[in-house]
Amino acid sequence: MRANRAGRIKTAQQFREAIPSDHSHRFLIHDRDSIFSEQVDESIENLGVKVLRTPVRAPKANAHCERLIGTVRRECLDFMIPLREKQLRMILREWVAHYNHGLPHNSLGPGLPDPASNLPEPPQPNRHQLPQGWRIVTKSVLAGLHHEYLLERAAA
Question: What pTM, to 2 d.p., does this model score?
Answer without folding.
Answer: 0.57
